[in-house]
UniProtKB/TrEMBL annotation:
It is found in: Cell membrane. It comes from the Bacteria. It holds the Pfam family EamA. InterPro entries: AA-Vitamin_Transporters, EamA_dom, EmrE-like. The chain crosses the membrane at residues 42-59, 71-89, 101-119, 131-151, 163-181, 193-216, 222-244, 253-273, 279-300. Residues 10-144, 160-295 form the EamA domain. It is a multi-pass membrane protein. This is EamA domain-containing protein. GO terms for cellular component: plasma membrane. Keywords: Cell membrane, Membrane, Transmembrane, Transmembrane helix.
């Protein structure tokens, strides 16, 4: 029997706040990009967050053993995939808008569902979920190519940025698969997060050096960006998210996560004046609906069975 609770007002409110924070992530990176390259910002925030997580574990008397037998290999793989996600997301922000980056990045549940369908027998997808997959990929194509009358050069740069953001979403999805099908599924969320943060700090710092993106200008805007990301996004928000998943029904939390790209699009338009082409908005709507069908299948099934008790719908 699932000991996790159904959503209550506190859980819904906390999820909304966390989605708002996650939606701000790309906005803040983009705002501070003139002062420091996004991948270097992410590297620094990851190092600071790793230190905060370690101090938190020390205060709670929890042990951290990143080299434990049977765990360090999937932990390293998860860390590399996590680093690739943010490397591509950071580079995407150089070529496309924060709004578009957020939408393509948050296609990750689609890629995770496909990977788990192949590797985990208990995660086989139902017909309604395949409809969601088809709808999401149709939305990706519509958002990707429905870019209006931009100039050829700008159009090409935007397509490159969109593709990098989409690959970042795929990498995030594969990170989820690794965590679910390996021994990482049985260790604390804080230790799993540490693998990802430490790997991102090291690998993104090396990437910034190799790509010659280490120049920066120390400004209040940059300091605020890195501190916000390190303390609120990579530390507090991630730990709160893991707490929610541990105490409430994950499928329902996953459905509400669609608010993150929604917040990202609205905030990008409001704060950065990101252009919102009709094709992109239509595609983004299809992507969000597809994610809801894939992630919220069990919840949708429960609702249908309540409405039609004699339905053959199987969750």
């Amino acid at each position: 029997m699932d000991a996790r609770k159904p959503l209550d007002m506190f859980a819904v409110s906390l999820t909304a706040v966390l989605c708002l924070c996650f939606g701000l992530q790309q906005i803040v990176l983009k705002v501070a990009a003139p002062d420091m390259a996004p991948i270097l910002q992410i590297s620094l925030r990851s190092g600071m967050s790793a230190l905060l997580v370690w101090l938190y574990m020390v205060c709670r008397g929890e042990k951290l053993n990143l080299l434990a037998n049977g765990i360090w290999k999937p932990g390293l793989l998860a860390g590399v995939l996590f680093s690739l996600e943010y490397l591509m997301a950071g580079e995407a922000l150089r070529y496309t808008s924060a709004s578009r980056t957020t939408v393509f990045l948050y296609t990750s549940p689609i890629f995770a569902a496909l990977g788990l369908h192949v590797l985990e027998k208990t995660e086989r997808m139902a017909p309604l979920q395949w409809v969601g997959i088809l709808l999401a990929f149709s939305g990706i194509a519509l958002a990707f190519f429905g870019q209006g009358g931009s100039a050829d050069a700008a159009h090409g740069h935007q397509m490159l940025g969109d593709f990098l953001a989409l690959m970042a979403g795929a990498s995030w999805g594969m990170t989820t698969v690794v965590i679910r099908v390996s021994r990482l599924a049985y260790v604390s969320a804080k230790q799993t997060l540490m693998y990802q943060l430490v790997a991102a700090f090291v690998l993104l710092l090396v990437s910034a050096v190799c790509l010659q993106q280490t120049a920066f200008t120390l400004t209040p805007r940059l300091v605020g960006s890195v501190v916000f990301q390190a303390t609120l996004i990579s530390f507090a928000a991630f730990l709160a998210w893991f707490w929610l998943l541990r105490h409430y029904q994950a499928s329902r939390i996953g459905v509400l996560a669609f608010m993150t790209p929604l917040f990202g699009v609205v905030l990008g338009y409001w704060l950065l004046h990101d252009p919102l082409e009709p094709g992109f908005l239509q595609g983004a709507a299809c992507v969000l609906l597809g994610i809801v069908l894939v992630s919220g299948y069990a919840w949708i099934g429960q609702g249908l069975r309540r409405l039609w008790p004699f339905s053959r719908f199987q969750a």
